[in-house]
UniProtKB/TrEMBL annotation:
SMART domains: IBN_N
Localisation: Cytoplasm; Nucleus
Organism from which the protein derives: Oryzias latipes (Japanese rice fish)
Domain called Importin N-terminal: residue spans: 32-99
Source superkingdom: Eukaryota
Entry's family note: Belongs to the exportin family.
Annotated GO MF terms: nuclear export signal receptor activity; RNA binding; small GTPase binding; tRNA binding
Functional note: Mediates the nuclear export of micro-RNA precursors, which form short hairpins. Also mediates the nuclear export of synthetic short hairpin RNAs used for RNA interference. In some circumstances can also mediate the nuclear export of deacylated and aminoacylated tRNAs. Specifically recognizes dsRNAs that lack a 5'-overhang in a sequence-independent manner, have only a short 3'-overhang, and that have a double-stranded length of at least 15 base-pairs. Binding is dependent on Ran-GTP.
Gene Ontology annotations of biological process type: protein export from nucleus; regulatory ncRNA-mediated gene silencing; RNA export from nucleus
Keywords (A to Z) from UniProt: Acetylation, Cytoplasm, Nucleus, Protein transport, RNA-binding, RNA-mediated gene silencing, Transport, tRNA-binding
Protein name, as recorded: Exportin-5
GO cellular component term of the entry, any: cytoplasm
Chief localisation class: cytoplasm
Amino acid sequence: MADQVAAMCDQLTKAVLVMMDVETSQVYRLEALKFCEDFKESSDLCIPCALQLADKTKPAVVRHFGLQTLEHVIKFRWNNMPQEEKVQIKECAMQLLSSGTHSILEEESHVKDALSRIIVEMIKREWPQHWPHMLKEMESLTSQGDVQTEVVMWILLRLAEDVITFQTLPSQRRRDIQQTLTQNMDNIFSFLLAVLHVHVESYHKVKGQPGHELQVRAHCRVAVATLNTLAGYIDWVSLTHITCGNCHLLETLCLLLSEPELQLEASECLLIALSRKGKLEDREPFMLLFDDVAIQCILSAAQSADGLSTSMNSSEPLAGDVVERRYVFLKRLCQVLCALGVQLCSVVGSDVNVGVPANLSKYTEALLAFTTHPSQFLKSCTLATWGALFKHEVLSKDAVIVQMAVKYLKVSMTNLVKTGFPSQNDNPSSEYSRMDFHSDEDFHFFFYSFRGQQGDVLKTASRIVPLEAFQTAADWLHYQIACPIDLGQTASKSSKGSCSLMSPSVVQWDAMTVFMECVVSQILKTLPEEKLPVDQSMELLQAVLNYDTKDPLILSCVLTTVSILLPFLVHRQQLVPQVLLKLFKAVTFEVDQENKGPRTKSVKNVRRHACSSIIRICRDYPQFILPCYDMFHSNVKKLLSSDASQTCMEKASLVESLVLISNKFQDFEKQKAFLDELLAPVLAEWTSEEMRSVLWDPVKLLSFVGADQVVAEQDEHTNMASLNRGRMSFCLNAVLAVVKRARWPADVEEAKSGGFVVGYDLTGAPIYRNPCSAQFLAFMPNLLALIRTQNSLFMPENIARLSETFVGAHELMDTEKNIVIGLPQLPMDFYDSPVYRSNLERMQGFLGTLYDNCFSLLGSAGASLQKEFYTIDGLAELIAGSAFVSLDQVPDHRLRSIIRLFLKPLVVSCPPEYNESLLRPLLAPLFAYMMQRLSMKWQVISQRASADGDDEEEQVVCQKSEVTQEMLEEQLVRLLTKEVLDLLNLSCISKKVAEPAASKEENGEEDMMMDSVQTSSVPEDLTELGKCLMKHEDICMLLLTLSFTSLSWKDATNCNRTASMVCWTLLRQVAAGNLLPEAVTWFFTSVLRALQVHGQHEPCNLTLSQLAMVIYENLRPRYVELRGVMIQIPNINIQALDQFDQKLMDPGVQKPTEKKRKDQFRKLIAGTIGKALCEQFRKEVHIRNLPSLFKRPKQDKDVVDSEVEGLASLFSPENISL
């Protein structure tokens, strides 16, 4: 036996060394690994070999393998092991712990960790019932040396992690161990604090003494391990253990903040303690940390760490090399301060009699110091605490907080400035950003969120000191206006003398506009009208209007400032003409009026910004425009009749502004005449014979827009085709603007007197007419023809007509592809580039926008025209004959537009009386087609996923572009699936059902409300349209088939939503009827199949299990076939199924609670639930329950009686020899 063990140990040692040797080939490494794993799984020599390999004379990697083998034996063989062997393992493990390790500084951490896990695995199986003196044994081990003490700390920590944090035990074992730990927590905490005290004292005694460096490190190592163990318990023990002894633990932790080697672990313990929730009276002792000693400890530690976190060395090329550990400690300390502030806000002003601390000013100064730190991360950590302080009912009125609000406003002026990119060296923040962010992209997205949080806190501070906030904003604006433009080192590449997004002037202007918007929005809500700083705001507005710049980025900020100050014009309207002139000038903005090359996106944004501002004034403040309407109208007409310098989008925006003003005429005939005049040239163009021939013929359309022409890249492309595209786009955009904006007065009496009301419906509600109806109806025939023609463009013969230049014209642009697959670009990547980088991009943008606008116009018509639209003769046939033509050829990204921009708005706005005549003929064939199309798409995706690993060589050769294309196609299928299922949901499901279900789904709650089919049907479950569709048997089965089929598509989000909101709501409508048994079986099987696909996702698991149970409970009494499906589930307990069926169908048996029924049913269907790939090949660990200590014991069926009797004496004192 000994020879066998020795021989096997030699082989294992060689195998382990081969595995760990970097020079070993992959083949030999895999062979060695297989040999070791096979040994652990099947060898009878595991225990003696493991003990021999764990001997401290062996190399560390070999010892680690021996300890791992011992842990493996305990995990997977313990239940079947004889008692004597268990005792032997326990004795040997304790012997290893006692004398089988090197000194604390010599021993490898992974060896100590492996040893601690062996002890923990035995504790999880035998304590407290069969190892009652475990804690005492651990305590006695600490007297044998530092390494034993450290391993004991690790044992206690790993035990808490497995039992409390990760919960890797069966519920009864977890409950037994947790309750025993809780009962002994006084002793455990006393023990931990005693160990900490002893080693910290010893550390202090020998620290700095020559020749005692190793002792210092040893004591420090044990103290760190003890603090880490405390952190594992502080998170969940009763608060009384943390605050007992006048907060002795917290006091100790505060004192340790001054020790560089221990401060990080001490701060983490403090943070966990102060982050605890619970009764307010239990948290009241935390206020002791506002005493002088505690606050001073925190301040001193922060100052010391901040001084050491940056080592300044002028000889290095980059001064300011951040020391990571000190910086991490600063983060923890900042979080400690923030958590302390949260506790303060909780107890002050509550039922607990706690006043405002005397040291509040010292605390807020410390918090402000972190807010002004160069690290952007530290600044962001303080925001939530500032917000809580400024919002607090009591604290916000305290003089200290009011004064601090003013200081915070000043600090925000710096913090809002976007600086500190990791790639830059122009700011102290960059050093810290390189520690916190992998790239400029990461920093950009962080700062975007960070600035939003700052804005929220700024608004709160502005409510406390509104006038001071406005004065600060005004001073900053005056400073920016007076300050010369600083291009910095990163000027614009396309425009000489212009700024880039990183230029100092741009980042300052950008931050100032954010500050101004936050402040102004709050003072308008906070201050009464008579206290508003109207004079000062008009002075600011005048200064902004007088400020002139040719830099597009700064001009955009100037326009934002004008928009922010617009509400003050209500009180002084004399500046309205100047505001309008400023905006009209910006609409025609060019960097260089003489050299009009391709416009960059920054220039386009200025012009678009100006158009949006004009629209906003006309929408929100039409009273400003009416007194100077003639001037406004003449400027708009001048711009509309100008040359091609205005894009069709800009011209359409100007049309939109005129329509918004015309809504204030409050006279139907006058507004109609105005719109007739406005759209006359548009309609003349659109209905001309030339345009008609183009819109009805795909060949002529391609030629008209130039898609069949080869165009040189250097061509300015101001040819006839470009003008044609502009003409077509303007016609469409102009009518879209009119249809979206033209409205009748909101007041019924004004609408009646203005001639907008033409009658009343059966409920007495007025029926309105829209002044743009005639124009739209004249526009509509060619619009439908264009939609039909565009769908025909995707036919193979028309694709072949595209020129070499525009062969990819129907594809998404690169920027759109990046958005779809989740790769958004940074603004600095494209602000300086032309709007379209190539002729192909220009054509892609035109065709995509044209397609979207057609369906957006059609979708807006119903809500705008109402009855005049829905009463068009043969409307359903007209739409089906255009929008639904050639759908097989329409790509997914275009099909999304049809559903999102047209069908969804149509369903929302359509009156119920037109459901049968309009929506049913449209939706029924669409859902049938989409189910067929999506089923095929998802089948391809599933086949592709299953074949991914079949041929590794092909994967290596596979080009990156092919992978990206597959990702794009799959993501587009997901988006299209979402649109289809959302349309189904919108059409059929009432929000009275959808909202609670969605809420519970998002909250992850297991108990979802599901009505039973035996109860009376709730009429609000289905919309009126849903009832209309479900009346027709063929449509009803189509909707059910689509809903249940979609559950198995590999899209967990859509599955969860559909299962929780749609499936049972639809099935319940027909469940009381005579469904075929095959149909019922198919519905139930579909849910089980979905569990196989999505079961590894817990939200889907809960939702689908609930759906399966509801179907089974409601339909099983009438359909015995469901039992036939159940018995096919792998590993199902037939006896448990019989009991479940009996309780379900026997009216005389008392039914268990819903929670118990759910648990029972989930156990029955457990065999169908799919597992994640990482779980599929994991060997399960089985831990047997022991006789319960805390309730009447029950017979454990899987434990043999004789073994129970034998285990009672396991680990008894006579069987323990150390």
